[in-house]
Design brief:
The protein is mainly α. Helices cover 74% and strands 0% of the residues. It has helices at residues 3-13, 16-19, 22-34, 39-53, 60-69, 80-90, 95-100, 103-125, 131-144, 148-164, 171-178, 183-200, 206-215. The longest helix is centred in the middle third of the chain and has 23 residues, at 103-125. It is globular and about 50 Å long.
């Protein structure tokens, strides 16, 4: 299945309410192109780790199910916090109903939930989590064949270091990979990569990881 067909399938699967959401229309197409299946499963790990590092405990698959069940969209509320409170009160996650979904429907929930988490981070923490930067990290991990534990640790170390350096957007990682990052910002990303590699205990050194990021653009 091509990206176009896959994205069309997602759009057909989400509720009519979410189809009218500006947030969904803006981020879903980018996310589907940047992180096509089966990398979406790995991307959820990164999104969960990054959001936890920012103090937002979210499970994208569950959030996506809630959003798709709801009769309102994020834009119907003054903040994502209010929207999430509405979801938790009126559409608490139901594991039994979720388990009954097809694999395609669960994939749709995953993508919707990742978009929702990105929006939550942006509004609640002022932190921008970009689909393309996520895609770079996922492809890098796949190239080195890191397992889930290594990827979690690397992502956590990377994110924590970036936050400590005062960075509020993952787009800095994307720009670094593209070679377009301003010189005065490069040390922040390089140091964050070093921190991530150390925490994950991976065998690749900084130079190898940086080279992989460049190749993963």
């Amino acid at each position: 299945m091509g990206i176009k067909e896959f994205f069309t399938g997602i759009m057909k699967g989400i509720s009519n309410v979410l189809q009218n959401s500006v947030v969904m229309q803006k981020l879903l197409p980018i996310l589907a192109v940047a992180i096509p299946p089966p990398w979406d499963v790995v991307a959820v790990i990164a999104v969960s780790v990054i959001s936890a590092a920012m103090g937002v405990e979210e499970k994208p698959d569950e959030l996506g199910w809630q959003m798709n069940e709801a009769d309102k969209k994020p834009e119907d509320f003054s903040s994502f916090k209010e929207y999430k409170a509405y979801l938790d009160e009126n559409y608490p996650f139901d594991q039994e109903k979720y388990d009954y979904l097809s694999d395609e429907q669960k994939t749709m929930c995953r993508y919707v939930g990742m978009v929702g988490t990105m929006q939550e981070l942006k509004e609640a923490k002022g932190f921008e989590l970009t689909p393309n930067a996520l895609g770079m990290l996922v492809r890098c991990a796949a190239a080195f064949k890191w397992d889930d534990a290594q990827f979690k640790a690397f992502t956590n170390g990377l994110t924590t270091s970036l936050i400590g350096a005062g960075e509020n957007s993952f787009s800095i990682v994307e720009s670094f990979g593209k070679g377009s990052l301003a010189p005065d910002k490069q040390d922040a990303v390089s140091n964050a990569i070093t921190a991530g590699a150390k925490e994950a205990g991976v065998k690749q050194d900084n130079a190898a990881i940086i080279a992989s990021l460049h190749e993963s653009v």
